[in-house]
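Quick start: what a row looks like.
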Amino acid sequence: MNKPLKKLTFAKRYFYITLGIFIMVAGFYYFIYPPGYVIGGVSGVGVLFSELFDIRVSLVVAVLNIVLLLVGWYFLGFKSFYRSIYGSILFPVFLFVLETFSPFLPIPEDPLLYVVFGGGILGLGFGIVIKYGGTSGGTDIPIKILHRLMKLPLSVSIYLVDGVVIIAGVIAFYDDPNRGIAMGLYAVLVMVVAGKFADFVVAGSNTLKAVHIITDMPDKIKDMIYEAIERGVSLVPAEGGYSKQQKTMLVTVITRNEYYIIRNIIAEVDPSAFVFASPASEIHGDFTTNTEDD
């Protein structure tokens, strides 16, 4: 069956980004907030401040997101600020609505349920947001700042920022035998589960993907890929086994955040192109993640 690749419309893209953010908020509100897990990110800081100072989590998240947006504008430029506005505002708005109108679910106090379903739903929502070219804002901004200014690998930046938040929660509740270190360990598990789910939603089971594109318009697609995300593209001569037609296959390796961009380029230039992606591991040579897109 020949199924042409269609370019995502603006409305469809933001529908899915909105849906993804709502799913993230639901996972947080129903499974992470009730047991008081201080996971990484702004939501984790929100739980910490809510527990210590009896402040609404949505208010803390909203204030921190606004501050981080301004910091991001200063250090990363307007592009990063613009891309982060929607998620940074929508997340606390959805959280405020649930806080105001929705009671907690009658779930037994079972850490396994909180970790698996909380992390899974969070990761599902975040994966949808990333897949459609969005961002949830929050600590994405300090992560990018560390990555750019201190030249730290993106993974190390994420571990540092989320780690500081989780450790702060452990210290704050250290004297509580039911929380403290145990809560910190559960928070780490939540982040691991969320990361796995997000990776799977965006691009299968691997963060990096080798994308293969067999097309009649290789030069235009190649140029647009380089212009949009500055990725190198290899051109490989290909011949149809049945049709014997001569074509060109483009091969490039992308990060999960670049999937949306690649998809739309192909849909715009050659909707009938044959495209498939496979996990890319053991990457060696000249490959770096782009700060603006990760």
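That is the whole record. The domain at 209-279 is CATH 3.30.70.120 (Alpha-Beta Plaits). Residues 50 and 56 are 6 Å apart (CA to CA).
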